[in-house]
Amino acid sequence: MFRERRGVSDLEDNLATLTGQQQDDDNMSDDDNAAPEMQSEAELEGEKEDPFLMAIDDLEGRVVAALDDVKIHPGVRSNSSQTVQAELATVLQPVMEVAAHTAPSVARTYYRGVGAEGVEASCEEVYQRVISDLVLPVLLEMAQSDTIPAKRGASLEFFRGLWRECHKSGSWLDSNQGSNGGPYGSGIISKVHHNTQQPRAQLKRRQQKRLAREAELLRYWVQASIACTTPGVFTSDSAEAAIGARGVIAASASIRPSLKHIAQRIRDADDRGANRVFGPVMKMVEGVLKKLFLNTNLSKDVGAEDDALRSACIKFLEIVCLCCSAKPQDSSSRKRRDSPDDFSLEDLPAGHPVITREALESIAEYAFSTLRGLALLGGQRKVDSNLLSEMLMGGNNSPSEQVVSILKPASLAFLEVESTIPPGDAENALEFNLDRANMEFDFLLSQKSYTLTINALATLSSNRPVFFKEGATCLGRRNADPPKFVEDGPLTKSAILAIQSQLRASCLTLLRNALSVQTKSSQILLKTLIKSDMKVQAEKAEKMAQQTMSLKTAGRAARNRANMFYEWETSADQRSSKRQRETDDALAKMRAAKAARGLGQGIQLPTSMADSIDLIMANLQHLPSKKPARSSKKQSSKQKAPATMDSLIDAIITNGASLTQEEGRWYSRDGGEAWESHMDNDTYYELSEKLLSTITAEDGPDKKRSKQELESIHNQKALFDTQCKVAASEAMGRIIANSTSSRYPELTKFANQVAAKLAWTLKDVPISSNLRPAQQMANDTIQSSKKRLASKEKQESLDELASSFPLVASCLVMEATITPESEAQEDRPSLGRSILDEAYANSCYEKPVKGKDPWRNYDTSLDLFVGSFLHSGERTNDKPTDNDRKRTAAHLSGSIQQQIGAMPQVKKSTFELLSAMCDTEDIAKKAADADRKGSQQTIAATASLHASKQAAEKRAVTVLLTIRDSAFQRDDVQTRRSAVEAAVCIASGSMNASKSCEDKALKLVMNVLFPKSTTLADLVVEAAVAELKKASDLAVETYDSIQEENAKNAAKENYGGPKGAFAPSSEAERLAMDKLRKPVFLFMALCIRRPEIIKKLFQISAVPKADTLSKTVRQNMAKLARAVATKHGAATLAMQVSDETSQDEIPLLLTFLEHLTPVGEKNMPSQELIDACFEIQEKKSKDGKKDPRFLIPIVCSMKRDELVKKLPEFVQADDDVFVAALMKMGERLSRHQLLFRDEPESDDDALQLKGLTLCEQLVYLHTMDFKAAGVPQKRYLDALRLCLENEEVFNDGLIMSSLDHMSGKFLTSEEKLPLAYMRTVILVCSKHESLHSWICHTLLPRLVEGKIYTEKRLWEGWMRCAKMLESNAGSGVSSVEAINQLPQEQLEIYRARYPPTRLN
């Protein structure tokens, strides 16, 4: 149905937006309603002539075009002036207009048949083809399967808007009963049409059609909401929460109309139709409740996306309670006019076997109890999983029972707590203490969700009397025991103050309600408000509620008095109203006086012709009677020519130009005295002999002429030469003027060719007056281009061209000074192109001269020509409201691709200037500032800025397309290299460009240029290497300053160090890493395609003092390693990279190996990778000493027996290596860290234990024979100390588990106690006070039982430990009991060494 854009797909996205190409098959039709092939020509001709079918086809085409635009939309906003949702809504607006209004209008305009039956049949056909078969399925498919959250949200909002629009007059669901109502008439119901009775059969038929369409739209709407609330829609938690929130909002909007439709179906005795809607509605409610109570993706902490989802679910619970409960039945409520979309339990008819009031009432009851629990406890208390599973698995599979099975456990979790609180009627109703700190919660409420919960309770209590007492009691209790600030809690201090204020306001509002007196809940509300220091307000509110309650049973006179009182109380202050009117009158008079004087909004001209004439006559009276004299005699002396009739006529005809013309020029005014006319058969003119003799006279020293004569001849010749140049310049100006104003392309092209030859011939000739704007543009363009060109020689060449060939420079930028008024003017031949062609021809035939580049003029002209494109865009950005500049820049940017493609030769400087057009940051910043500071007075300016921003981005895309074409189509290798280098420079960030341009350039390099050919791929790699070397040079240059900044940060008292292994340590280092990240990303993307260049990445990154680059590479190594491992194999790549790595590159190699291992507890490294790491360690050994760091990436998957053998190698390594190895060993055994696993009886390798748990690490470290392994005792003990000092990992429970395992083995005589065992116990006593009790009452007696005193060194340690804990008897934890269990001999030994302490 939809057209698809095709592009080169790889890496992240395709380059569809960049290439702008769409490859459609000409043989395939995208028309779903195309005629069958077997139709006859007559039938086809009849269909073509049928206006009704043509109108439907037009509607479908418009809908398909708009839906295509939505399908290809990237899902991100194209400008900052509106959100992406508003942008998608704008794209979908044509679909909305066609579906809701244009389609029924077409149906009743082009209907076929006779009378009402024909209109109905046409309406049905249009609705079926446009709405049922096209709009609704496609929008539902978008809501169910689109991978972009914004589009799913737009489809949900579309259903809501379509429901609203379809209920308007003349649309599909118009409920007007007249003969002109619904889609069958204009929708305008006059008295005549309203009173016109339809035939009963027609009315019933139309009502059934309307009900069927309503049901279809509701089903699609509900199904779309279900799709967005289904778990697992997106892998990203934030995207899942965002689209879930929009799905819940859509469910909140659709539940009321769905229930009203179900009620109508039951009234019509259509139980099957009611079930078809009720089932999806209950499934939708079930999905929302699962999002709130059973969503495992939502964290307990409050995040922005999770908070939005929970808030939407709480609002949905409120709507469910309102729809499934009864309205108040008092007289005041009966007089109130209800909303047409409102629904309550009374609106549901009885008689349906499944959809009963009792079922909905039970949903409302449990939902309200859940809301009370959220408000009183501050979150959802943990639901009993056993009860929840029983509820979900049990039941009778009724739709409403499934909803109850979710709500009931959540409400019971609160009711269990409420049962421990005194009832609301008791005197001590507010005397309770809930220990929320010891409660387990599924989630806690934030400020927003808490506010919505309180509002929900207040609303339900006010509008549903059945909930008033419980709701008032709940809010009163929460106000008496408000939320308190907790350091790591979800609520800030300001949020708690706001919630407390809202609680007091809600309690006061409920107390003012008459139901508080009627339900006897006013006492608890009064008490809680008095407790909050609001006694005066509470007593007034209670009095008002009592008065309102008494008026319900009072007489008419009392009610009238109350009505008068309230009318007088709410009336406006007469004095203040009068003062306001006087102020308004004074302001109006002041504005009128300003307008009369011509102030304010400019000069105000009279409105009538008579007043205008009077104004003119009054001004004529002030004109001077005489013409003012000239300011000086010097000016009047210059005017030698007499004023005659001829001169007056010439002045009129030439529009005043003749008055400024100099008659001394020999070539003007028909030549004057310089020309002679011959009146023969053919009249012709020639220069006079006098003039010729003067200009040809020789003034050399050999001629016998006086000094005055020689000076006169010299001056005349100089004047003649000057006038010749002026004549040539003016002739050039006339040629260019004719060229730019001609309507005929052939004439323009010929004039351009002549002008090009003359421009290069007339060196040092000044320009004429009509070329002054072009000369100024040329000078500005040169200044702008010089900022972008890196070569100083290029900059000097531009200045030289402007001074030596001013005509050439002006002609090159001529197009940038002309605003095209029509398409014909846009397509005219380019004068600048003709200048370049002439320069190229001259360079080709110019004889080579030593020290002079024959292509200098062509290259410089090309730079100036391309610079005019750049400067034109800059001028537009400087003045976004200038429409002439906009049209000129648009015309030039549209021709860049064609002009550069037709150039015979392109240089590197050309791409440098073109790439500068990708820098759109300035105009983007201006647009963002306008949005932030925008007001009603600057709407036009803001719109112009955004239009300029879009135009700048379009120009940038055109530049990228031009670079692509040059790389593809040019034969010259140097030109292709320059084009590729330009694209790589933009992608790597070395050229100033916007973020979007950099992303598009990256896609251009990776998805278009690199896969095109091997030659281009080599050029891309070569350019990327050059950019990486630039990055390395930058890192070396900034090394000293970054180190100094890092040292300053480290010296600060509150400095906590970097937040990660490769995180920047200072702001200077962060900025440097940001600059280096782009070339690193680009090179890593190339490494995925060509793994052999990883060697180059390591070599450049390991340059001395390039630490910042090395850190940047290692920070992003995970993406590279995992991508190449997936594509080329981890083991093979590890060996290949290690073979090419030098000693200086070992840190990079280690990081690479670390990230080659798969992620996740179940994804273990392969045996091939393990063997490869061992082989790498063997190859990289130095002097027979192996580096254990090469094994760290795969220790988690090594067999436990092998790891135990390798443990001494890690112990002898540095502290960082040792700790990293321990962490990696237990990385994938997080669930078993406290256990010492038993070896399996089977010899199957798959069942062998892998890795070491933390408990096993401590055990094997203690049992290691360090002497046999060659480990120094000091290093061995330091290793144990490192473990014990890391209290976050080796915590109390882990240490106790390890010591318990070793002591248990000792007790059963299976193993001896390690020598370092008691030393560890003594260290634990000094660091872990919580283990004192276990050591005293369990461990020490167990060691006595195992006869530890038989081992001398262990016995010494036991006695020292017992002595440390013996003196704590006062705290209840003492080793006295264990000491008394010693045999008599050992007890005497102990007492001899440590006598008992005497107490004073």
Provide an overview of this structure.
It is a single chain. This protein is an all-alpha fold and 1400 residues long. It is built from 60 helices and four strands. The strands form two sheets. Strands 1-2 form a two-stranded antiparallel ribbon. The chain has a two-stranded antiparallel ribbon with strand order 3-4. Strand 3 (675-679) and strand 4 form a beta hairpin. Helix 20 (522-531) packs antiparallel against helix 21, helix 31 (792-804) crosses helix 35 and helix 55 (1292-1307) packs parallel to helix 57. The N and C termini lie far apart (97 Å).
Key structural traits:
1400 residues; mainly alpha; two-stranded antiparallel sheet; 60 helices; 4 strands; 65% helix; 1% strand; flat; disordered N terminus
Which secondary-structure class do the elements indicate?
Answer: mainly alpha
The parts where pLDDT drops under 50 for at least 5 residues are 1-48, 187-195, 331-337, 564-579, 594-607, 626-640
Largest sheet: 2 strands, antiparallel
Rg computed from alpha carbons, rounded to a whole number of angstroms: 45 Å
Helix content: 55-70%
